[in-house]
Amino acid sequence: MSKKEIIIKFDTKTVHAGIKPDKETGAILPPLHQTATYVLEEVGKDKGFDYTRSANPTRQMMEEHLAALDGGKYGIAFASGMSAVDSCLKFLKSGDHVVCSDNVYGGVFRHFNQVLVNYGLEFTYVDSSNFENVENAIRPDTKLIWIETPSNPLLKITDLEAVGAIAKKHNILFSVDSTFATPALLRPLEFGADLVMHSISKYISGHNQLIGGIVITNREDLAEYLQFIQKTIGAVPSPFNCWLTLLGVKTLALRMKKHNENAMAIAEYLEENSKVATVAYPGLSTHPNHSVAKEQMSGFGGMISFELSGGIQAGKTLMHSVRLAQLAESLGAVETMITHPITMTHGDLPKDERIARGLTDGLVRISVGIENVDDIIADLKQAFAKV
User: Fold this and answer.
1) Which of 33, 105, 176, 341 is deepest in the core (most CB within 10 A)?
2) 3-state SS of the chain?
3) pLDDT tens-place string over residues 265-277
């Protein structure tokens, strides 16, 4: 039986898929190829590597590894999650139309509405948690459906199988930002997605140590074009960041189990807190998309958003009073982090648009870490006492 046949379970894949001992030394840890260029044996013969912007052995191993985790054939890595997002839009041309989830990361909204519209692309934003909204927004010139699930920061869940069927029916490219879920909890390619995007900076690397992004696909034509974009634009991750990712991702399955466990306990605590008006967490039965999340995900993730009854002042007091949790912009790391979306991750959204989308002044987002859950709750309790 080959090694490929042995590796079947996800947590085994996180350790072994695509990882090979060094051929020259037998080193069990993949070597770091920190180089810009390569010596060629002869003109026209480069063994697949000539310049690291085009390809690098460490990056290639990481791309193959992450693709395998998502059940994909091809992984194309970029210098950041946003450069990975941008690469997916390179399939479009002026005059093309995109249907997009209305609750997406603020950087995505900023890129679409302040940059790409200047190149003739048009965007319609819909609440994709009702998949009928997606189909109703489709036009003859619609070329891409962009879904973020769970969404940032309201944790909306989109039925990917339903949207995948819509995309196939209309012959539209279907892309999913699955950063919050990771392949440990959700693999969108299984539901009809053509492209899956992850910010490697978050759960996949998991330790707040790097910036990176990746796009994964099963379609050779899409992969070839993305590789062309990767080489041409040059927004590639450093070999060192790829090597760090290969180290961090080995514990992804373990970390996500702990994130899930902690987040569920904290969501239940928040739901009982009199100073909290609403809690958004897909694992709660009160979440409007709980049944869909339960059906298509193997866990509910480590992200929680909640609305404080006291509005923005209560939110600021809470976030300035935590001691264990860190007031920080990012998410998905081993440390618990707390964020105020309207002034941080989604600060560029016009006020009328963010209010229309439910991003209110008192909204707080927590990226639940892997610390002891009693310590996290104790920290929140002492902070809430000051609200």
Assistant:
1) 176
2) CCHHHHCCCHHHHHHHCCCCCCCCCCCCCCCCCCCCECCCCECCECCCCCECCCCCHHHHHHHHHHHHHCCCCEEEEECCHHHHHHHHHCCCCCCCEEEEECCCCHHHHHHHHHCHHHHCCEEEEECCCCHHHHHHHCCCCEEEEEEECCCCCCCCCCCHHHHHHHHHHHCCEEEEECCCCHHHHCCHHHHCCCEEEEECCCCCCCCCCCCCEEEEECCHHHHHHHHHHHHHHCCCCCHHHHHHHHHHHHHHHHHHHHHHHHHHHHHHHHHCCCCEEEEECCCCCCCCCHHHHHHHCCCCCCEEEEEECCHHHHHHHHHHHCCCCEECCCCCCCCCEEECCCCCCCCCCCHHHHHHCCCCCCEEEEECCCCCHHHHHHHHHHHHCCC
3) 999 999 999 999 9
